[in-house]
Amino acid sequence: MPRRRSQSQPSARSAATELDGRHQVVDQLHGYALSSHATTTAAEGAVRELTANPRAAIEAVEELDAAQRGPAATERRILRWYG
């Protein structure tokens, strides 16, 4: 009898982190801090919202990426486009 494969849980794109007493929501794929919060609870709530609506997280990263200027930002975009 064939075994069923267990479905792996998709990895979370966003995570709540704390650095120097500041709670941030970070996009783990690109490393961008998407938002900053006063408490861990607020940051975790924002992560839940972004997890529920992944398109919002993607749009936030795209806006931050578009706002970056200079040769390093251009090189990152080229590498992302052409892998």
What's the overall geometry? globular
Name the quaternary structure.
single chain
Number of helices, counting only DSSP H or I runs of 4 residues or more: 3
Query: In percent, how helical is the residue content?
Result: 40-55%
Give the neighbour order of strands across the main sheet. 1-2-3
What is the CA-based Rg, rounded? Answer: 16 Å
- The first-to-last residue Cα distance is 41 Å
Low-confidence stretches: none
Output mean pLDDT: 80
The count of strands amounts to 3
Spell the H/E element sequence.
EEEHHH
Strand content: 15-25%
**Alpha-beta classification:** alpha+beta
Largest sheet: 3 strands, antiparallel
Write the layout of secondary structure elements.
Layout: E1 14-19, E2 22-27, E3 33-37, H1 40-52, H2 54-67, H3 71-82
List keywords for this structure.
about 80 residues, alpha+beta, three-stranded antiparallel beta sheet, 3 helices, about 45% helix, about 20% strand, globular
Explain what this protein looks like in three dimensions.
This protein is an alpha+beta fold and 83 residues long. Helices cover 47% and strands 20% of the residues. The protein is built from three helices and three strands; from the N terminus they run βββααα. It has helices at 40-52, 54-67, 71-82; strands at 14-19, 22-27, 33-37. Strands 1-2-3 form a three-stranded antiparallel sheet. A hairpin with a 2-residue loop joins strand 1 and strand 2. The termini are far apart.
Summarize the structure.
With 83 residues, the protein is an alpha+beta fold. It is built from three helices and three strands, in the order βββααα. The chain has helices spanning 40-52, 54-67, 71-82; strands at residues 14-19, 22-27, 33-37.
